[in-house]
Specification:
alpha+beta; eight-stranded antiparallel sheet; 8 strands
Length: 196
C-alpha cells in the first residue's frame, strides 16, 4: 500500500500539546518553552486516506504500522545523523523503574525517579534503534523528542537525569513525534527551520 505525507492544520498542533500535558519532565519543560503554533505538523497515511478522518487522532484506523514505522525510523535516523550531540528521547509510560521486566531491557535507559527514558544516539545502528523502539512492548508514552545533549555531556546507561539535562533537552528539541490514530501512525511536529 502506498503512503504519503499529509500536512495538517492547527488542530494537530493542539492535539500534540494536549499529549505533552500527560508527559514527563521533557514534555513539561517544553510546555513552558514553545507554543503549538510555532511548529508545523504532518503525518504519513495511505495515499487514498479519507481526508475527513485526518483530524480524528484518537480513532482506530486500518493502517499497517509496519509501513508507518519506516517514516518514524527515517525521521530518527535523519536527526541522529546531523551531529554527535543529537539524541532521540522517548518517555516510557508503560513501566516504572522498579518493574521486574525493566531489568531485562537492553536499551540505553536513564531515569528520573521511577520514570524511564530510552535514549537513541548517533552511534546506534538501525537494528539497535528498532530493538529499542520495540523493547518496551509498545508501551511508549507516545512521545519521542528529537533533541541534543550539551556538548561534552554523555549520559551513562542507568543514570539519573537531573533538571539541568531535561531543561537542555527541552530547549534543543526541534521535533516532537506523537502517536496518533489509536497508535496506528504518528504526528510529527517540527519547529522552525526543521518544518517542511
Amino acid at each position: 500500500m502506498a503512503y504519503r505525507r499529509f500536512n495538517l492544520n492547527e488542530s494537530a498542533n493542539e492535539y500534540i500539546f494536549e499529549q505533552l500535558h500527560w508527559g514527563g519532565s521533557v514534555a513539561r519543560a517544553l510546555l513552558g518553552r514553545i507554543t503549538p503554533s510555532e511548529g508545523r505538523v504532518h503525518t504519513y497515511l495511505p495515499h487514498n486516506y479519507d481526508d475527513k478522518a485526518l483530524y480524528e487522532f484518537d480513532r482506530l484506523q486500518i493502517v499497517s504500522s509496519e509501513n508507518v514505522d519506516r517514516f518514524l525510523m527515517s525521521a530518527i535516523r535523519s536527526h541522529l545523523s546531523l551531529d554527535s550531540t543529537k539524541v532521540a528521547v522517548a518517555e516510557n509510560a508503560g513501566f516504572n523503574r522498579g518493574d521486574p521486566v525493566v531489568e531485562k531491557f537492553t536499551s540505553r535507559m536513564c531515569f528520573e525517579g521511577d520514570n524511564i527514558y530510552h535514549l537513541l544516539l548517533p552511534t546506534d545502528s538501525d537494528e539497535m534503534i528498532v530493538r529499542d523502539l520495540n523493547e518496551s512492548g509498545g508501551n511508549w508514552l507516545d512521545l519521542i523528542f528529537l533533541s541534543s545533549l550539551p556538548t561534552g555531556l554523555s549520559l551513562e546507561p542507568q543514570a539519573e537525569i537531573g533538571s539541568v539535562v531535561f531543561s537542555h533537552l527541552a530547549r534543543s528539541t526541534l521535533t516532537i513525534i506523537c502517536r496518533a490514530y489509536d497508535a496506528d501512525s504518528y504526528l510529527f511536529w517540527e519547529l522552525g527551520d526543521e518544518a517542511g
